[in-house]
Amino acid sequence: MRSRTATWFECKIRYEKTMEDGMQKKVTEAYVVDALSFSEAEERIIEEMSSYISGEFNVTDIKKAPYGEIFFSDLELADKWYKAKLQFITIDEKTEKEKRSTVNYLVQAGSFNGAVKSIDEVMGSTMIDYVVSSMAETSLMDVFEHVAKGSAKTDERPEFEG
Is this model's pTM higher than 0.70 or not? Predict the structure, then answer.
């Protein structure tokens, strides 16, 4: 299990998909891309999907994703994406009251229980008290990370000189 923090965008694309029975059907699918802006997100999803879809497709929606960190699984059966809402528990030293802050994550897993286990695996190695307040399977098809040209998994952004 590895995690990646970035600026994520959820993109929806609409195209004609060939179903198992050979019939063509218009479908809308959701994907997540790592990008710095809406225009880069559109460019990235078009680039990524062009190799998977023969024929025309339209980007119908792009929105900033409600999570900043994604947990990726190395397991082959981890083919689903779950949105996990965690509440981190801290104690206010002045008032001695419990304070909860909510953070959303996206987790790749093969099942609901697998997603919960992955969260516990990652968060268990930290000293932070937390509660999984919700976990829900998403309709996301895939997540596309930024991979620099000519490298395997490094995130290389353009540097500004000056």
Answer: yes
